[in-house]
Amino acid sequence: MVARVVKKFYYDTEFLEDGSTINLVSFGAVSIKTAAPNPYGGIDFEFEEYYAINSDADWTRILAHSFLSDHVVPHLPMGKIQVEGANRTWVDLTSRIVRPRWLIRNEVQHFLLGDPEGWEMIDDPDNPGSQIGVPPEISLVADYCAYDHVALAQLWGTMMDLPDGVPMYTNDLQQILKTNGITETELESQIATGGVDLTSFGPDHHALADAKRAAVMGWWMAEGREVMG
Description:
Blueprint: E1 7-17, E2 22-37, E3 43-54, H1 59-64, H2 66-71, E4 78-83, E5 86-91, E6 98-99, H3 101-113, E7 120-123, E8 131-134, E9 138-142, H4 146-153, E10 171-172, H5 173-179, H6 184-193, H7 207-227
Parallel strand pairs: 1-9, 3-6, 9-10
Antiparallel strand pairs: 1-2, 2-3, 4-5, 7-8
């Protein structure tokens, strides 16, 4: 039997949490398509990527939250709305990357699993003579992923509501670092020496930029050091 190829996705979320709930602000995910040495001694990365901001988030509380307003909101498209005759700062609902939660859920599912019409077909064990589509096998990775996985899973509801093919766990980049016997600072130094500027992907606390950084760090531990010699 031919082993199935496992596609690895790195993702990050920004969220509002209060000890009881996790309210999704934004979601970014990537998969590395290619990573090739360039003539300047570095690596050029090509990503498959998805990024969206949740228009249904609790923006009143987000804008009043000191950490989010200082570190997350500045990276989001913001505009003004009329509230009781006064202009008020609000997420820009006209931006193409600001989308309702239900649409983010559907788009994330398609990004991770692809079109069901393209799934591998196997014999249906419950219906002899029939076939069913099997979703691709994927792996999820995120940095300090405990709340990220909850934010992802809750796009569909409870953990039991996860669609077939979406893992019930996320691999934590911090655990991968520990398994590889290297600190985050040491790895970042190796990557910089290899000609890759992790800051070039965007600011900290931007979900897509953080997902790209995690992907490059994961790739470096798995393949990068060998590619760069």
